[in-house]
Amino acid sequence: MYIALEQPTGAHLLTPDDAEVAVPVTLRYTSDDPLAVHLVFPAWISLDDEEVTWTFARSLLEEGLAGPAGLGTVRLRPHGPSHTVVELHTPDGTAAVRFETTALHRFLTRSYEVTEPGGEPVQPALDRGVASLFGAA
After folding, report:
1. CB atoms within 10 A of CB 65
2. What does DSSP assign to residue 15?
3. What pTM, to 2 d.p., does this model score?
4. Hey, is 17 helix, strand or coil?
5. Distance (Å, rounded) from C-alpha 25 to C-alpha 17?
6. How far apart are CA 34 and CA 86, in angstroms?
7. For residue 117, is pLDDT > 90?
8. How far apart are CA 9 and CA 23, in angstroms?
9. Bridge partner residues of 69 (DSSP)
10. Which residue, 8, 15, 41, 99, is most buried by CB atoms nearer than 10 A?
Protein backbone atom coordinates (compact mmCIF):
# COMPACT_ATOMS: atom_id res chain seq x y z
CA MET A 1 0.00 0.00 0.00
CA TYR A 2 1.40 3.41 -1.04
CA ILE A 3 1.48 6.09 1.65
CA ALA A 4 2.57 9.70 1.16
CA LEU A 5 3.30 11.94 4.10
CA GLU A 6 3.50 15.70 3.61
CA GLN A 7 4.12 18.32 6.24
CA PRO A 8 4.08 22.00 5.23
CA THR A 9 6.41 24.03 7.41
CA GLY A 10 8.00 27.43 7.51
CA ALA A 11 11.72 27.92 7.09
CA HIS A 12 14.14 30.78 6.59
CA LEU A 13 16.65 31.12 3.78
CA LEU A 14 19.82 32.57 5.30
CA THR A 15 21.49 35.11 3.03
CA PRO A 16 25.20 36.02 2.88
CA ASP A 17 24.46 39.46 4.40
CA ASP A 18 22.85 37.83 7.49
CA ALA A 19 19.31 38.63 6.36
CA GLU A 20 16.61 35.96 6.40
CA VAL A 21 13.87 35.29 3.85
CA ALA A 22 10.83 33.37 5.06
CA VAL A 23 9.98 30.50 2.72
CA PRO A 24 7.35 27.77 2.94
CA VAL A 25 8.79 24.29 2.52
CA THR A 26 6.92 21.01 2.27
CA LEU A 27 8.57 18.02 3.91
CA ARG A 28 7.64 14.83 2.03
CA TYR A 29 8.11 11.12 2.70
CA THR A 30 6.67 8.29 0.60
CA SER A 31 6.45 4.59 1.25
CA ASP A 32 7.65 3.81 -2.28
CA ASP A 33 10.97 5.57 -1.57
CA PRO A 34 11.42 4.64 2.11
CA LEU A 35 15.09 5.52 2.43
CA ALA A 36 14.60 9.15 1.36
CA VAL A 37 13.03 12.39 2.50
CA HIS A 38 12.24 15.32 0.24
CA LEU A 39 12.29 19.09 0.78
CA VAL A 40 9.96 20.79 -1.69
CA PHE A 41 10.50 24.51 -2.29
CA PRO A 42 7.98 26.76 -4.06
CA ALA A 43 8.55 27.92 -7.63
CA TRP A 44 9.00 31.58 -6.70
CA ILE A 45 12.24 30.84 -4.85
CA SER A 46 14.01 29.28 -7.85
CA LEU A 47 15.81 31.07 -10.65
CA ASP A 48 13.82 29.24 -13.34
CA ASP A 49 10.46 29.72 -11.58
CA GLU A 50 9.88 25.99 -11.08
CA GLU A 51 9.26 24.02 -7.91
CA VAL A 52 12.51 22.58 -6.56
CA THR A 53 12.81 19.29 -4.68
CA TRP A 54 15.91 18.19 -2.79
CA THR A 55 16.05 14.51 -1.89
CA PHE A 56 18.38 12.95 0.64
CA ALA A 57 18.63 10.00 3.02
CA ARG A 58 16.18 9.84 5.90
CA SER A 59 19.08 8.61 8.03
CA LEU A 60 20.94 11.86 7.24
CA LEU A 61 18.02 13.86 8.61
CA GLU A 62 18.08 11.79 11.80
CA GLU A 63 21.85 12.18 12.14
CA GLY A 64 21.72 15.93 11.42
CA LEU A 65 19.20 16.55 14.18
CA ALA A 66 21.73 15.23 16.70
CA GLY A 67 24.85 16.95 15.35
CA PRO A 68 26.66 18.02 12.18
CA ALA A 69 26.08 15.50 9.39
CA GLY A 70 26.67 15.05 5.69
CA LEU A 71 29.64 15.38 3.38
CA GLY A 72 28.02 15.84 -0.01
CA THR A 73 25.43 18.13 -1.50
CA VAL A 74 23.20 18.09 1.59
CA ARG A 75 24.57 18.85 5.04
CA LEU A 76 22.75 19.44 8.31
CA ARG A 77 23.81 21.01 11.58
CA PRO A 78 22.20 22.26 14.76
CA HIS A 79 21.83 26.06 14.87
CA GLY A 80 21.34 27.03 18.49
CA PRO A 81 19.08 25.12 20.86
CA SER A 82 15.91 25.17 18.74
CA HIS A 83 16.91 25.30 15.08
CA THR A 84 18.58 23.11 12.45
CA VAL A 85 20.24 24.38 9.29
CA VAL A 86 20.11 22.38 6.07
CA GLU A 87 22.85 23.39 3.62
CA LEU A 88 22.21 22.63 -0.04
CA HIS A 89 25.40 22.64 -2.11
CA THR A 90 25.52 23.03 -5.91
CA PRO A 91 28.34 23.94 -8.32
CA ASP A 92 26.82 27.45 -8.38
CA GLY A 93 26.87 27.97 -4.62
CA THR A 94 25.31 27.03 -1.30
CA ALA A 95 21.91 27.77 0.17
CA ALA A 96 21.41 27.54 3.93
CA VAL A 97 17.86 27.00 5.15
CA ARG A 98 16.96 27.22 8.84
CA PHE A 99 14.15 25.06 10.23
CA GLU A 100 12.66 24.72 13.68
CA THR A 101 14.13 21.50 15.00
CA THR A 102 10.78 20.44 16.49
CA ALA A 103 9.17 20.53 13.02
CA LEU A 104 11.89 18.27 11.59
CA HIS A 105 11.63 15.91 14.58
CA ARG A 106 7.85 15.72 14.18
CA PHE A 107 8.21 14.91 10.48
CA LEU A 108 10.86 12.25 11.14
CA THR A 109 8.71 10.64 13.84
CA ARG A 110 5.71 10.61 11.49
CA SER A 111 7.85 8.95 8.78
CA TYR A 112 8.73 6.20 11.26
CA GLU A 113 5.00 5.52 11.63
CA VAL A 114 4.91 4.78 7.88
CA THR A 115 8.15 2.75 7.76
CA GLU A 116 10.11 1.88 10.88
CA PRO A 117 13.82 2.69 10.82
CA GLY A 118 15.65 -0.38 9.61
CA GLY A 119 12.42 -1.78 8.15
CA GLU A 120 12.92 -0.23 4.73
CA PRO A 121 12.88 -2.71 1.85
CA VAL A 122 16.33 -2.22 0.34
CA GLN A 123 15.95 -4.28 -2.86
CA PRO A 124 13.73 -1.81 -4.84
CA ALA A 125 16.11 1.08 -4.11
CA LEU A 126 19.09 -1.09 -5.01
CA ASP A 127 17.43 -2.13 -8.28
CA ARG A 128 16.70 1.53 -9.18
CA GLY A 129 20.27 2.52 -8.32
CA VAL A 130 21.84 -0.21 -10.43
CA ALA A 131 19.46 0.53 -13.34
CA SER A 132 20.35 4.24 -13.23
CA LEU A 133 24.08 3.41 -13.33
CA PHE A 134 23.53 1.56 -16.59
CA GLY A 135 21.17 4.12 -18.11
CA ALA A 136 18.05 2.00 -17.78
CA ALA A 137 16.19 4.18 -15.25
Report:
1. 17
2. P
3. 0.83
4. coil
5. 22
6. 20
7. no
8. 9
9. 76
10. 99
